[in-house]
Each structure stands twice: as structure tokens, then as C-alpha cells.
Amino acid sequence: MNLRELAKHLNLSQTTVSRALNGYPEVKEATRLRVEAAARQFNYTPNMRARGLATGRAMCIGHVMPISKKHEMVNPVFGDFITGASEAYVEAGYDLLLTLVPDAEEAHHYRNMKAKGNVDGIIVHGPLMADRRIALLQEIGLPFVVHGRASDMPADYAWLDMNNRRAFDRATELLIELGHRRIGLVNGLEHMDFAHRRREGFLAALMRHGLEVNPAHLRAGEMTEALGYGAASDMLKQPDPPTAFLSSSMVTAMGIWRALGDRGLRLGRDVSLITHDDDLGYLKNGHDVPTFTATRAPVRDMGRRAAEMLLEMIRDPSCGPLQTLMEAELILGRSTGPAPRE
Amino acid sequence: MNLRELAKHLNLSQTTVSRALNGYPEVKEATRLRVEAAARQFNYTPNMRARGLATGRAMCIGHVMPISKKHEMVNPVFGDFITGASEAYVEAGYDLLLTLVPDAEEAHHYRNMKAKGNVDGIIVHGPLMADRRIALLQEIGLPFVVHGRASDMPADYAWLDMNNRRAFDRATELLIELGHRRIGLVNGLEHMDFAHRRREGFLAALMRHGLEVNPAHLRAGEMTEALGYGAASDMLKQPDPPTAFLSSSMVTAMGIWRALGDRGLRLGRDVSLITHDDDLGYLKNGHDVPTFTATRAPVRDMGRRAAEMLLEMIRDPSCGPLQTLMEAELILGRSTGPAPRE
DNA sequence: GACGGAATTGAAAGCGCTTTGGGTGCACGC
DNA sequence: GCGTGCACCCAAAGCGCTTTCAATTCCGTC
């Protein structure tokens, strides 16, 4: 059933039917009711492609995920983020188009997004420190919001980010207050912006307290369980092993934990551990009391907020690039305790 | 730049330009080259909405994920599955539309998919045992492939599934051969089809070997780390604790492992564990030697295959519903060993 | 040099919707 | 009786593309 048929069936023009369904005021209330009833009866839904052609709006948001060829890994955070975003889209009547781009920097993908005309705006995932996509998108003129930031780029674009720097600074500070002097950092890949900021926060806190940075206590890689296990195992073998760890993700933290187990070290007693926790649905940090002391950021909420920002920017293009910085909570779990006496 | 402008610039009709770009034979080679050069120069990409309107094909596949209100959790497998599917779409020039459906309003969402006309087919995720969506989609007449199956429905639809029953049967068999007599099953929610089949496989193997089923050794829930920890802790407290566990996911297995650690039980020595492993990018099962003995199914490949099936069905609607059953590998890791002497 | 068919190209219709720019009645005031 | 303003409705244009049908050109042939 399309508009023409519906109109014919009602003995009305397409114009009137269209207006009735889209809530225009110049149609008589009785007529509107008649139209709406018929639409319901025949299960009429406007064809979005046709509507899009006519209005110029696609009613669809694109999410662009870079999948690096080298590290073929889907960010586990993605599922939860997108769930949150999806809530906002459903409410606003938008669809979600997902594009996985093999190489973060393939310009033509982004250009095509605009030309193909099937999205009104996009959300950019996984920004690098110097992410050329931002300038590209500004040039293209498609509204966008970055999930995260790109430190090396001028900041006049829309983004939603967690305060990674501060979160890791605070976490480090907490460990230092507990008496830890040798702290290992197991970070994500540091050309990713979020990882870079976390490292900065970590180093800043160390420096503020006059602590040396031991390069052997810094490790970065894809945030897998294996990374945590490997990194912690290596560091613990060294002459001056860390008495505490900072980890960039829950799975990595579990790997670290396993490495402790191998050596008979007890978490929170012999060795302390703070991890970042994205509060993912399938990876809850304990039940009543959190297993890990953690910097927690509700990724799902962030997805929703980012989506709302983008929708707002589309609704009112004059509002300029919106920016949101969210603070992570520092939640106390059972993985931290005073540094052991030497 | 749109087709008309491009045509004008070339002093050609839209017809010819369109044909040149779409590889129709009736256009002179010299002209085609000229057109292609101009298209590249101006970065012309056809507007998909307009093309879709004209051709009736959306060049887009919908993925529908139910998000149950009760268990607000995104299936962690989803990211990898969709990455695989995406590969196939990119090659075929398709886009991917993601819809998260809160399962209450099911029916009208699927009906709208068809009416809105922005997808040519859909992939259905998370099938339940008696999933009404299948009959609905058949009635609607939109090509679809189910990731998994629905045991209680007639099987004349397209699906791609892992042989869950056989995988868990084999895994159980292995444990029995190792001398285990009391085996705990920590499963996913059993109204989900895959979990139901795994349970069946588990029970079949027990029965075949004349082993009693202890209801206290069966547990099902959302496959979180906490589930594994809680279930294992409970079972180990009982008078006749399991000497081996079967787990439906890696994170759950890690929870079980943690519960063992709490009690000073060593994995693979004191207690054995086999888990299902979806081979996710960020949750690798060990490095050289797998940590866990596991039934492994490459979810990403499955995504690709499912997508290819759907594209084939769209290309040739007469080919009927395709079906693919994949076998999981049973890979040996360090989490299994002979049952301890009593 | 005219002719038939193959090779190229174009004009125009149409996909299903929105929206512009008129109508057509009708009530009202003069 | 006539203009005015309002409330309501419609015909038709147009969004950017594909595709049908027809027109034109080109060539080898007789």
C-alpha cells in the first residue's frame, strides 16, 4: 500500500493524505482521523527512500568504525555504545547505518557517505591522536560527532569524551596514596587518543609525586586478556616488580589477575589493581561489591548522549559543534590495598 | 554533483551517463572512458535513495537484534559477527542497517522494515526456541537468514547455525572419558535456542553413559562473568561437587575459574573445564596453547557466511531458503585433565 | 548511391513521496 | 451584491536516478 493507493481509497488527494499523516494544520480534524484510521487499517508506512528523496533528509545516522587491517579486532565497547545511541534514534524516528571501514583513513568512504545521501550525520568511532577524518568531515560538510577526541587536531568539532586523563590521574593518585611506588600501566594502543590521554594522566600523577617512570613498567597493545597476562607476567619477573597495576580494560585486568594467580599473589593484598571499566552488559564488575577498583564510565549512556547531540545538531545546524566531557567515577572495589612492606 | 549536472558537463544525456557508469554494453568505449574520467574528477557517486527508488532495490541489509527489556545486554558475539557480515556487504556494494528492537513491539517493526523499503533483506539475531518472527517474516515476504535456529518452528526457512548439540555432546563425552562423573553445566538462558540445544547435547551424552543428571548441577542465565562465578561457587559448596564444568561462554568460564581460585582449586588438575569459545577478537583463548579446552566456532566467519547466503537469496530468489550447519572444533587446552581420585 | 542492420545516443516516463501555488466554498461585513 | 478572509483541498512539479522506446548515426553491402 502506497500513498497514491491510500489516497484513492479515501477519495482524497495525495497532498491531503500526506499532510494529514504528517500533522500539518490545514487539514480538517475529521479528515485527519479518517486518514489515520485508514493508514492503520492498511498498515501504511511511507517509503523512506521516496520520502528521503523528496525531503532531502535520510532519517538515518551513520556509525563509522575503523577496523584496522593490522589489528583485526572489533572494539568490545561498541555494542553497548550503539545500544545507547539506538535508544535515541528510535525515539526520534531515525535509523542506524553501520559502516566498518577497513582503513581508518580512506577518504573516499567518507566522501561517498555524503554523496550517497543515505545518512544525515555520522558518529565517528575510534579517533586517533592525529585523525585526519575530522578535517575531512568538516570539509565535506556532513554533521558529525566524534566518540572521543583527537588531541592533535584543532578542537572546533563536536565530540563526546570521557576525561581519560583525569580518570587515570586520579586512579594513579589513589595508588600512590596507598603507598605504591612502582606502578605498571597496561594500556591500549597509544596512537589511539583515549590511550594516549590515559598515559598522560598516569605520568602526570607520578611526576607530581616525584616518582620515577620505569619504562619497563609501561606496556601498550590491543586490550585483550592475553595482553594483561603477558604484560603483568613480564613486569613481575623483573628485579623491581610493580606493586600495583593500572589497566585500560576489564578483560586486560582479568589477564593481569591471572598472572598474579600464577605467582600465588593475592589481588588487593600483595598486588593492587585499578582498571578502567566501561560498564558493559556482559562484563559486570562484581555484584554487590565491585571486584576491581575502577574508573567507570557508562558507555551505553555515552552512546545515547552522543546520538542526542548529533540529532540536535541536525535539527538546528546553527547551534555549532556541541562538546561533552564526562567524568569517570572512581569506584572502590576489592582489588586495591596498601602497598606491602618491602 | 548529480547525474544531470554531470551529463550536462559532458554534453551527454543522463541516460548515456547512467549507462556508462553502470556498465551497460550499448555505450561506446570512448564515451565510457570519458564519462568515468569525469565521474572520478568530480567525485560523483549516485544518490542511493534515488537509485533505490528507481530500481526498487535498497542495496542495504538489515540486522535485527532483539534487546530484551528484562536482560538489557548486548550480545558480545554481535560485534564480531557483524564484522564478518560487513566484509561480504562491502564486496557486494551493500550497506548495513542496524535495528535494535525492544522485543515487546516486535511485529510492527518487522512489517515496517518492508514498507519503509530501506532494506532488501534482513538477518535475524538471537532466535528463541519458539520464535514468532520467523512465521512473520515469511508472511511479510522479505528475504531473511536467521543466525541460529528456532527448534520449535517448521524448518523451511534460511538459517546458519553451529551444531550446538553435537558440540556439547562431544565436550561432555570428553569429560566423561577423562573419568568425570559429576559435571556442572553453566549455560545461557535456555529459552534461547542455542542454549537449549547445548543442554540437550550435554544431557544426551550423560544419558548415553548411564550417568545421573543432578539438577543442582544445571544452571542457566545471562552469560556474564558473575554467572560463572556464582554458579560454580554454589555447586562447589554442595556435598557432591562437580569435578568438571561445561560453560557456554568465555567470560562465564573466567568466572568459573575465579571461583576455583577462591577455593584453591587448580584448573585442569583439581577441576576440569570446557567452554564454548566464539573466537572473539578481544577475548582470545590463550596464545600458543589454549588456556581453555573449548568448542570453538569462528563467529566472524559465520557472519560472513550468513551475509553471503542472504545476498545469494536476494540475487536469485528462486534458490529457496539456504541452510548451513557448521561444526564447532573441539580444541584441547590446559583446562582439562583426568578426574581426581575420590 | 541507396539500404538494412548494428551501434550509439536521447527524450521522457516513472519510482513514492513532499511541497508550492493555486483553487473552491463559505461566512462575514459593507 | 461584492469584496475579503478563512478553512480546506487539489494538481502538478520536483527530488535524482533507471529504463523503455524511439531516434540518429555509422558502415558495409548490393
From TrEMBL, chains A, B:
PROSITE patterns: HTH_LACI_2. GO terms for molecular function: DNA-binding transcription factor activity; transcription cis-regulatory region binding. SMART domains: HTH_LACI. Keywords: DNA-binding, Transcription, Transcription regulation. The keyword Transcription applies. Residues 1-55 form the HTH lacI-type domain. It comes from the Bacteria. The keyword Transcription applies. InterPro entries: HTH_LacI (IPR000843), Lambda_DNA-bd_dom_sf (IPR010982), Peripla_BP/Lac1_sug-bd_dom (IPR001761), Peripla_BP_I (IPR028082). This is LacI family transcriptional regulator. It comes from Roseivivax isoporae LMG 25204.
